[in-house]
Design a protein that fits this description.
Layout (H helix, E strand, L loop, with lengths): L9 H11 L18 H31 L3 H28 L2 H24 L5 H29 L5 H30 L1 H21 L14 H13 L2 H17 L1 H4 L1 H8 L4 H28 L2 H21 L3 H29 L5 H48 L36 E8 L5 H18 L2 E7 L6 E8 L2 H9 L6 H10 L7 E6 L8 H12 L2
Antiparallel strand pairs: 1-3, 1-4, 2-3
Helix pairs in contact: 2-3, 2-5, 2-6, 2-7, 3-5, 3-8, 3-15, 4-5, 4-7, 5-15, 6-7, 6-12, 6-14, 9-14, 9-15, 11-12, 12-14, 13-14, 13-15, 14-15, 16-18
C-alpha cells in the first residue's frame, strides 16, 4: 500500500490511500458491518461467501464418493487431511509470494487454478475414471490452491479497508465461512443425495467464477518497488527472522496455537457429542453443527462492541475462559436445549479469538512482511488444531467424550493463564508505516547490487552518566536491526576514548543493506531518536559504509582504468 508522509497517522494514511483509489472511508465509529461500506470489500465478501459454500459442498461430495470407492475408513479420513495438509506445508512459501508479488494476481492465479482442478475433478467423476488415490490427488491440488490463496487474501484485507476497520473485516470473513459451514454441508448432502457427487463438483467449479470476476475488476493501489524482489528462500528466511525477533507476533502465534489446541474440541468431537452425549442421530449432528455456526455468526455481530469495551488481551482471555465453560457444560449435558446454547457460545468464542489473533498479527507487522507473518500464524493455529484433534481423540478413546471435553477445558484455562506471561499487544499500538527518513547514500566507488558483504559502523559519543540509558536503548536497537536483516550486530567501546562507542553490523550484499535500511518503521523512530538524543558533540554521529575487498583481486574500477591506460597511445 502506498505510504504518505511520516506526519500522518496509520489510519490517516490508510484512508488517504483508499480515497485516492476511489474507495469511501468514513468518519468515526467503526461497526461490525463498516467494511461492507467499501464497494470492493463488499463485492469480494459476497463472492467469497459463494466460494466458501462451493468448497464445503465439494468436500461433502468428495467424502461421500470416497465411501463408494473404498471401504477403508482411513481413506475417507484422508479426504479431509489432503485438503488441509498443503496449508501446513506451503503456507510460509505462499506468504513470501504474497509479500513479493501483486496480491491481486496471486488471488486470480490461485482461484483460476482451483477452478481448473474442480472442472477436471467433475469430468473424471462424470466418466467414472476416479480411483481413491486419484481423488485424493485432486483434493490435494485443491488444498494447494487454497494454501496459495489464503496469505494473499488475508493480507489483502488491509488494501481494501481503512486500517481501523481491519478487525471488523477479518471478523466478517470468518462470518462468511461460518455461514457457509452452517448450511453448506447440509445442502451439499442434499445435492449429493439427489444428483450424485458429480453435481457437488460442478457446483464448486461455478462458485469460483464470481470471485474471479470481482478480482479481475479490482484495481488495488500500486506500490512502487524500488528494489528487486527477494528470492523465495531469502523472503522465507526474512519472514522467519522478523517473527522470531518480534515479541508481539511471537505472543500471538503461541496463543493461537493454544487456542487451536483446546478450541478444536467442539468440532473434533461433534459427532460423538451428538451420538453419545445427546444420544441423537445424523439430524442431531447437523443441528449441533448449525448451533456452533450460528454462534460464530452471532459472535461476529458483537465483536465491534466487545473490542471497544475490552483490551485485546482481556478479550482473548475471556474467549479462552468462556469456551472452557461451554466445553464443561457440553460435557455434563444430556439434552439438546442445554448443549445447543453451549456450542453457540463456543462458536462465538471461536470467531472472536481467531479474528482477534488475525487482526493483531496484521497490526503488528508492516506491509512488506504481513503475508509471511499471517502464514506463520495460520500454521500455528492449524498445527494446534491438528494436535488438539489427535489429543482429544486419544483422551476420548480412554475416557469418553465427557473426558475429552473436560481435558480441553483445562487446556483452554491454561491458555488464558498464558496471557499473564505472553500478553497480546493493543490493536494499533504501533505505527508500522515506513519511516521514509533514510535515503540511499551516494557512493564514491563502483558497486553492484550483489557486491558485498557491506559493513556499517556508526560512531556515537556518549557521556559517562548516560551510559546505562544508552545501553538500554541500544539493546532495543539491536533487536530492530537484526529483525530487519542486519547480521553480526555488535557494540564496541574505544579503550583510549571513554566517550566513543561504535555500533557495527553487516549485510551480505549492497541490495540487502538497502532493503534492511528501508524496512525501518515509524515505531522504530522512537529508539533512533532516543539514541541520537544521547549523542554529544557539535557533529552528528559519523557513519561509515564499507564493502569488503579481497587482497590480490583488483577492484573493477582499477581494472577498467588499467585497460584504458594500456589502450591509449
Amino acid at each position: 500500500m502506498p505510504q504518505e508522509p511520516a506526519t500522518q497517522t496509520t489510519a490517516e494514511t490508510a484512508e488517504a490511500d483508499l480515497t485516492a483509489a476511489g474507495l469511501k472511508p468514513h468518519d468515526g465509529r467503526y461497526s461490525a458491518f463498516a467494511p461492507l461500506r467499501q464497494p470492493i470489500f463488499r463485492a469480494v465478501w459476497i463472492a467469497s461467501l459463494a466460494s466458501n459454500f462451493g468448497g464445503l459442498v465439494q468436500m461433502v461430495g468428495a467424502a461421500w464418493l470416497m465411501t463408494s470407492l473404498s471401504d477403508s475408513p482411513d481413506m475417507v479420513a484422508l479426504v479431509q487431511a489432503s485438503t488441509t495438509l498443503p496449508v501446513m506445508i506451503f503456507s510460509l512459501a505462499a506468504g513470501a509470494i504474497a509479500d513479493n508479488y501483486d496480491r491481486r494476481r496471486i488471488l486470480l492465479t490461485a482461484q483460476s487454478f482451483m477452478l481448473a482442478v474442480s472442472i477436471m475433478l467433475a469430468v473424471f467423476a462424470w466418466f467414472g475414471l476416479l480411483s481413491p488415490w486419484l481423488l485424493l490427488a485432486f483434493t490435494f491440488l485443491l488444498g494447494c490452491g487454497n494454501a496459495l490463496n489464503n496469505p494473499a487474501w488475508q493480507s489483502s484485507v488491509g488494501d481494501m479497508v481503512p486500517r481501523p476497520e481491519v478487525p471488523a473485516a477479518v471478523t466478517l470473513n470468518s462470518v462468511a465461512f461460518n455461514i457457509a459451514r452452517s448450511v453448506g454441508p447440509a445442502i451439499g448432502g442434499a445435492i449429493v443425495a439427489a444428483f450424485g457427487a458429480v453435481a457437488a463438483f460442478i457446483v464448486n467449479a461455478f462458485s469460483y467464477i464470481g470471485l474471479l470476476v470481482v478480482l479481475a475488476r479490482w484495481q488495488p493501489p500500486r506500490v512502487e518497488r524500488l528494489l528487486p524482489r527477494e528470492t523465495l528462500w531469502l523472503a522465507m528466511s526474512a519472514g522467519l527472522r522478523y517473527v522470531a525477533m518480534s515479541p508481539n507476533i511471537r505472543a500471538v502465534i503461541l496463543r493461537a496455537f493454544l487456542f487451536g489446541f483446546g478450541g478444536v474440541v467442539g468440532l473434533a468431537l461433534m459427532p460423538l457429542i451428538a451420538r453419545d452425549l445427546v444420544r441423537g442421530g445424523p439430524l442431531t449432528f447437523g443441528i449441533l453443527l448449525g448451533a456452533f455456526g450460528a454462534g460464530a455468526v452471532g459472535g461476529a455481530f458483537v465483536s465491534a462492541r466487545l473490542r471497544r469495551r475490552f483490551s485485546t488481551e482481556t478479550l482473548a482471555r475471556l474467549t479462552f475462559l468462556a469456551y472452557a465453560a461451554a466445553a464443561l457444560v457440553v460435557a455434563v449435558s444430556q439434552t439438546m436445549w442445554l448443549t445447543m446454547p453451549a456450542l453457540a457460545v463456543g462458536g462465538a468464542c471461536w470467531v472472536l479469538a481467531l479474528s482477534t489473533f488475525n487482526s493483531t498479527v496484521q497490526f503488528s507487522a508492516p506491509r512488506w512482511v504481513v503475508g509471511r507473518a499471517l502464514s506463520l500464524y495460520q500454521m500455528a493455529a492449524f498445527g494446534g488444531m491438528a494436535a488438539g484433534s489427535w489429543a482429544w481423540g486419544w483422551v476420548t478413546l480412554h475416557s469418553g467424550p465427557a473426558g475429552g471435553l473436560t481435558a480441553a477445558a483445562v487446556a483452554l484455562v491454561l491458555g488464558a493463564a498464558a496471557g499473564l506471561r505472553y500478553q497480546l499487544p493493543p490493536l494499533e499500538a504501533l505505527n508500522l508505516d515506513p519511516l521514509s527518513r533514510w535515503r540511499e547514500p551516494t557512493v564514491a566507488v563502483d558497486i553492484e547490487p550483489r557486491s558485498g558483504p557491506v559493513f556499517v559502523t556508526i560512531e556515537w559519543r556518549i557521556r559517562q552518566e548516560d551510559v546505562v540509558e544508552f545501553l538500554k536503548a541500544m539493546e532495543e536497537r539491536r533487536r530492530i536491526r537484526r529483525r530487519d536483516g542486519a547480521r553480526h550486530w555488535s557494540l564496541l567501546r574505544d579503550l583510549t576514548d571513554a566517550e566513543l562507542w561504535i555500533e557495527r553490523y553487516d549485510s551480505p550484499t549492497w541490495v540487502e543493506y538497502l532493503r534492511q535500511a528501508q524496512r525501518a518503521t515509524q515505531a522504530d523512530a522512537e529508539i533512533g531518536d532516543r539514541v541520537r538524543g544521547l549523542h554529544i558533540g557539535p557533529e552528528p554521529p559519523v557513519v561509515h559504509r564499507m564493502v569488503e575487498r579481497q587482497t590480490g583481486v583488483l577492484p573493477r574500477e582499477v581494472l577498467r582504468a588499467t585497460r584504458q591506460a594500456q589502450a591509449s597511445p
